[in-house]
């Protein structure tokens, strides 16, 4: 560092004495003009110039001095009594550069001709080593700054020696807050106790239970939150002391994605199961309702007819139940249209208020504009009604239900957390109640069909499952958030469209009369009881009927010259050929042949997405519905 040291005044000849005393060192003495007056043997060895070659030369010219500051400015400071020390560049006689640690001090500053005594030390190798170390440290720091994994270095006592920038972001501490403290601060119990035991056992026995092995543990952030992490520990020895380097990877997002995938797979499997069950139930209900329908005209006794009507109503209730099962399995029929969700909810709010009762306040909030989504209006209203009923049951003493509607954009990062959810614009409907909330075990099963926390006889457990299946069928997403004693929020994401559109129309039946016919119809149905009911209904309505139990025998009839006006076939049949494949072959054999499909599944596309829904009838159906659909095709 600069100082105020001044060499006391001495006779001119004393410079010769000084030069002789320091002859073995690298000392140069030069005057105000920089001309060298004394050149030691040490300088001869250091620079390669002999004394006779150096004396009389300007020192900065001879050695081609390179300094961060102008030499003349430095010389003025030194003559003012300030000692100057710094690194400069000198060149050897052979031309190679050297890094020199130099120290200049004025001699006899009060003399008219003061001199500068300059001592020099070659630090080229030292500085090169230091530069290399600094470069390596900068390189390592750069690598650690870009590596997504966090790094924490500790000593044998558990004291933190290094804390990477990624670790700062992960744990919420700055390195200044952590370095020097025990690494236990980053761990919750019981992991902190296990860590101490592992390290102590390793230092005592040499058996590595955690060294070089990745394992899943828990970390503790500065805010006290606990999170899952993968920890891998490496070991090194420095100055005969061990240091341990921990590489940490946050598993929060990965575990959430894995759980979402498991949940999605589970719901998909349950959906397939319930869809299959609904198909079988619809076949049974077709037989039950069909026979009841044909039995009614045969009963003269009013009490018997009343009992029969109760049975018919029970069959209709069964059909509604299977429809809910099909909704969960994403196999319900939809009438999609471009719907302004905000306007729909505004118009629907009065019904929701009546449903909730006087003790529950309904609030709606519509943010922004353009809330159009392609949805089935009635199914969306049904879903909202189900959510309102659940909210009402969760608030027996009153509360509030809030519906927030907004248009949001889900980016790729968000979509990656939820399987089957593409990024893009969505209409978000957030339904929030201030009810009792759900414990974790209930949240995990909330969307499963038939799961309910209500007492026996109250509810079917299909409300949330219907909402889940309906939204998934539209390509949307459902999110559940609930806290005990605070409330529940169901967030529905519906794919948005740019502007309002026109409702997709479908043909409907006229319930005022059941038209008859005289055409010949080929009925293909593998279930004998269902086939028997269909044949009886068609015969009663005046049609001529041919029947077949599978596609193969139906093709045989179609290959004959037997007149056939319409093919009425089930879609899902055994034997390797489905109803839609049968229909394609039948039309090739008989161009212009009319085809009516039926299925216990709610969506014709379960077999082939290209089938026109206008040529389709869902089981169970009434004789009236069958007659209307036949006339729509045949006429």
Any overview of this molecule?
The protein has 635 residues and is α+β, with helices and mostly antiparallel strands. The chain folds into 4 domains: 14-123, Beta-Lactamase, CATH 3.30.450.20; 147-250, PAS domain (Beta-Lactamase, 2-Layer Sandwich), CATH 3.30.450.20; 336-495, Histidine kinase-like ATPase, C-terminal domain (Heat Shock Protein 90, 2-Layer Sandwich), CATH 3.30.565; 520-634, Response regulator (Rossmann fold, 3-Layer(aba) Sandwich), CATH 3.40.50.2300. The protein has 20 helices and 22 strands. The model is unreliable at 1-11, 327-332, 455-462, 499-513 and 604-614 (pLDDT under 50).
In short:
With 635 residues, this protein is an alpha+beta fold.
Shape: elongated
Beginning-to-end CA distance, first to last residue: 108 Å
Number of helices: 20
- Per DSSP E runs of 2 or more residues, the count of β-strands stands at 22
Q: In this structure, how is the largest beta sheet organized? A: 5 strands, antiparallel
CATH architecture of the largest domain: 2-Layer Sandwich
| Overall average residue pLDDT | 77
CATH class identity of the largest domain: Alpha Beta
Low-confidence stretches: 1-11, 327-332, 455-462, 499-513, 604-614
CATH superfamily of the largest domain: Histidine kinase-like ATPase, C-terminal domain
Rg for CA atoms = 45 Å
How helical, in percent, are the residues? 25-40%
Q: Structural class given helices, strands, pairing?
A: alpha+beta
CATH topology of the largest domain, anyone?
Heat Shock Protein 90
Number of domains: 4
> How are the strands ordered across the major sheet?
2-1-5-4-3
Share of residues in strands: 15-25%
């Amino acid at each position: 560092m600069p100082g105020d040291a001044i060499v006391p005044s001495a006779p001119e000849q004393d410079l010769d004495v000084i030069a002789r005393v320091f002859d073995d060192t690298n000392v140069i003495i030069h005057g105000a003009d920089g001309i060298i007056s004394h050149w030691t043997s040490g300088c001869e060895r250091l620079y390669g110039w002999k004394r006779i070659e150096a004396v009389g030369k300007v020192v900065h010219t001879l050695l081609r001095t390179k300094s961060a500051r102008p030499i003349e400015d430095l010389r003025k400071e030194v003559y003012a009594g300030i000692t100057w020390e710094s690194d400069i560049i000198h060149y050897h006689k052979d031309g190679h550069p050297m890094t020199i640690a130099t120290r200049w001090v004025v001699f006899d500053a009060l003399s008219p001709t003061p001199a500068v005594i300059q001592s020099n030390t070659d630090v080229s190798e030292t500085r090169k080593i230091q530069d290399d170390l600094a470069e390596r440290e900068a390189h390592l720091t750069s690598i650690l700054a870009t590596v997504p994994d966090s790094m924490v270095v500790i000593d044998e006592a558990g004291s933190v020696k290094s804390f990477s920038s990624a670790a700062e972001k992960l744990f919420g501490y700055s390195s200044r807050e952590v370095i020097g403290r025990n690494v236990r601060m980053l761990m919750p119990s019981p992991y902190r106790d296990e860590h101490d035991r592992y390290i102590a056992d390793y230092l005592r026995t040499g058996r590595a239970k955690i060294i070089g092995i990745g394992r899943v543990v828990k970390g503790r952030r500065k805010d006290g939150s606990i999170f899952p992490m993968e920890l891998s520990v490496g070991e090194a020895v420095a100055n005969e002391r061990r240091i341990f380097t921990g590489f940490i990877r946050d598993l929060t997002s990965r575990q959430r994605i894995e759980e979402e995938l498991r949940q999605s797979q589970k719901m998909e499997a349950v959906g397939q199961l319930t869809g299959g069950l609904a198909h079988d139930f619809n076949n049974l209900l077709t037989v039950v309702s069909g026979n009841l329908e044909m039995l009614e005209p045969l009963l003269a006794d009013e009490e018997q007819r009343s009992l029969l009507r109760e049975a018919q109503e029970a069959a209709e209730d069964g059909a509604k139940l299977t429809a809910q099962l099909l909704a969960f399995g994403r196999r319900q029929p939809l009438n999609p249209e471009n719907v302004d969700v905000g306007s729909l909810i505004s118009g629907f709010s009065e019904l929701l208020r009546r449903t909730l009762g006087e003790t529950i306040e309904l609030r709606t909030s519509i943010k922004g504009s353009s809330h159009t989504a392609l949805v089935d209006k009635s199914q969306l209203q049904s879903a909202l009604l189900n959510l309102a009923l659940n909210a009402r049951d969760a608030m027996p003493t009153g509360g509030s239900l809030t519906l927030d509607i907004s248009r949001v954009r889900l980016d790729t990062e968000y979509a990656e957390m939820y399987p089957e959810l593409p990024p893009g614009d969505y209409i978000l409907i957030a339904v929030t109640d201030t009810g009792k909330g759900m414990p974790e075990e209930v949240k995990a099963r909330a969307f499963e069909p038939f799961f309910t926390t209500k007492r026996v006889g109250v509810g079917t457990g299909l409300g949330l499952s219907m909402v889940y299946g309906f939204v998934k069928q539209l390509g949307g997403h459902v999110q559940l958030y609930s806290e005990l004693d605070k409330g529940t929020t169901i967030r529905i994401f519906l794919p948005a469209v740019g502007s309002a559109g026109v409702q997709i129309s479908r043909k409907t039946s006229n319930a005022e009369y059941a038209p008859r016919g005289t055409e010949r119809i080929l009925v293909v149905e593998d279930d004998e009881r269902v086939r028997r009911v269909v044949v009886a209904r068609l015969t009663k309505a005046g049609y001529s009927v041919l029947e077949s139990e599978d596609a193969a025998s139906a093709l045989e009839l179609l290959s004959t010259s037997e007149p056939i006006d319409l093919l009425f076939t089930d879609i899902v049949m055994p034997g390797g050929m489905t109803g839609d494949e049968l229909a394609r072959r039948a039309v090739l054999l008989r161009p212009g042949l009319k085809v009516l499909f039926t299925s216990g599944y709610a969506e014709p596309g379960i077999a082939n997405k290209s089938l026109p829904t206008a040529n389709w009838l869902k089981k169970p159906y009434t004789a009236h519905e069958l007659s209307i659909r036949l006339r729509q095709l045949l006429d």
